[in-house]
Amino acid sequence: MIQKIISLFFLIFLFSFFSCKSDIEKNKEQLPNIIWLVAEDQSPEFFPIYGNSTVELPIIESLAKDGIVFNNAYTPAPVCAPARSAIITGLYPSTLGTHNMRTYNSYKKENQPSIGIPSYSPILPDGVKMFPEHLRKIGYYTSNNSKEDYNFKKTDGVWDDSSSNAHWKNRAPGQPFFAVFNFGISHESQIWKQGSNDILVDQNLVPIPPVFPDTPKIRKDIAVNYSNLIRLDKKIGKIIAQLKQEGLYEKSIIFFYGDHGGPFPRYKRSLYETGIKVPLVIKFPNSKFAGTENNDFISFIDYAPSILSIAGIKPPDIMQGKAKFGKFKASSKTSYIFAASDRFDEKVDRLRAVRYKHFKYIRNFNPKISNAIPVLYREQMPMMRELNKLWKENLLIKDHELWFETPKPKEELYDLTKDPYELNNLADKISLKDTLFFLRKILDQWIFSTKDLGEYSEKELVKKWVQGTKSRKLKPVSFKKKYGKIILEHIDSGSTILWKEKNGPVWNVYSEPINFPKSIIVKAVRIAYDDSDIVLIQ
Q1: Is 518 part of a structural domain of the chain?
Q2: Among the three residues 467, 489, 504, which one is the final residue of a domain in this structure?
Q3: How far apart are CA 430 and CA 407, in angstroms?
Q4: Which of 239, 268, 406, 537 gets the highest tally of CB atoms within 10 A of its CB?
Q5: In this structure, are residues 475 and 491 in contact, taking their beta carbons and an 8 Å threshold?
Q6: Same domain for 405 and 504?
Q7: Mean pLDDT in the chain?
């Protein structure tokens, strides 16, 4: 009798499942396509959509006319790998343990042997996953072309394709897609790599930011960057043209953004606005909100929950960001922007910052170290070598030498409305004592509430995550066969179960009982863990 009741309930479950499945198929047709166009290493101040008329960027300008220009978009880290860990998870790098540049080095076996730091993948908090995985569960085709660099070892099952050939065109007919395109032409390295190529602007007319002296070498590097933006615009134009040719442009949500601040010294790797403020344009279907601006704070940790919300997926509670759009849009706005800066390659430091209204507060935990730490990678830039030379020869004026100052102040406070380049530190102003105390307290609360790992030495963290642990290999997936379906389970609730037909090309994310094919293989995966052994089911 009990067995009959169980069977009846299971039949009811299957009936409900098949009924819902038809609804899911219908919903697929209504899900928006989402495209991310990512410019590496760029600040808003270089773009005409933010008031700079040095170059015309017709594609980006047209996209802005069809969408929303965000005037206060930020990264929580001023360098690519930590920033990308925030984008892909919706959490702060200092919470994840991805705050150092780099932790997991996918480009070479060694990481930073000169200071004893190996390549390692931090053990992320329970429940943290790369958000495209959630999109694949509801039928999205996900593609990434092609930079990853998440500061941890990614898992299978996140992307249908992550390669230089990744493109939405490879999806099934009618399948909704999330497609990412990364553009390296605007990267820091292109300042010296493109330096011998054509300069597409008049070097004599480019504006020089007030943090730099006006010299021929510095003018040239700035002109190279503007030239690279012209090249970037043309590359983005090819993607936009494809969307329009396929009738997808009007139906799609398109993000254009920079992955952190500009490619220059005192920009990239800096907690000043030049390092953490980024360009952001979002175009919605049918150009909803076309030609508007948004002054609200938005951080990279908000991107993942926002995309999930747009797709009708409730963002996981563990995400620290807020959904800014969609079904699960947060009811309150963001009041603060937080950012962190730690190790860059072979050089170690620790800084934290909070932006509130028009004020910025920065805390330097190692004031004896100059902001101009000699990162070998950056030393390749002619501008950086020029600045070093002028500094050593005592030829820099006050505003230009502040970045080299040693010791640097323990605390910095800036009024960004009066001082957008943060050259006048107000931390000692008696009239702003209450503001200083308030922001100091807010930063302390954030460090505590987000479990900021920056207080621990990296070697301690490596020992905890890598050297002092037992094997991190996941146990095999278990399965049951019932009524022509396969039900998969795994003992670790933080893992993801993947499956594919025995000779299939792409792993699928398991989310519901599987119709029994001839044979499938299954495994469990989790960030920083070794995949489980593969189980064959036939």
Answers
A1: yes
A2: 467
A3: 22
A4: 268
A5: yes
A6: no
A7: 94
Q: Is there a contact between 353 and 360 (Cβ–Cβ < 8 Å)?
A: yes
From start to end of 117-264, where are the E strands? Answer: 141-145, 161-162, 177-183, 252-258
Is 307 in the same domain as 446? no
Beta bridge partners of 336: 356
Whether residue 78 is contained in a domain is answered as yes
Residues catalogued as catalytic: 80
Count of structural domains within the chain: 3
Whole-model pTM: value is 0.94
pLDDT value of residue 292: 98
One-letter amino acid of 458:
E
Structural domain including 513 reads: 471-537
CA distance 131 to 475: 23
What CATH number did the domain enclosing 516 receive?
A: 2.60.40.10
| Tens of pLDDT, residues 408-431 | 999 999 999 999 999 999 999 999
State pLDDT tens for residues 7-43.
444 444 445 544 544 444 546 678 999 999 999 999 9
What is the C-alpha to C-alpha distance for residues 165 and 163, in angstroms, rounded to an integer? 5
Q: How big is the CA angle at 161 (ends 106 and 94), to the nearest 5 degrees? A: 45
Task: For residue 284, give every residue at least 6 positions away whose Cβ sits within 8 Å of its Cβ, in sequence order, or none.
Answer: 67, 68, 253
Torsion of Cα atoms, 298 then 303 then 306 then 310, to 10°: 130
d(CA 301, CA 63): 23
Together in a domain, 385 and 463:
yes
Task: Give the CA radius of gyration of the chain.
Answer: 25
**What pLDDT digit, counting tens, does each position of 182-198 carry?**
999 999 999 999 999 99
Whether residue 365 lies inside any domain: the answer is: yes
Residues 209 and 89 in one domain: yes
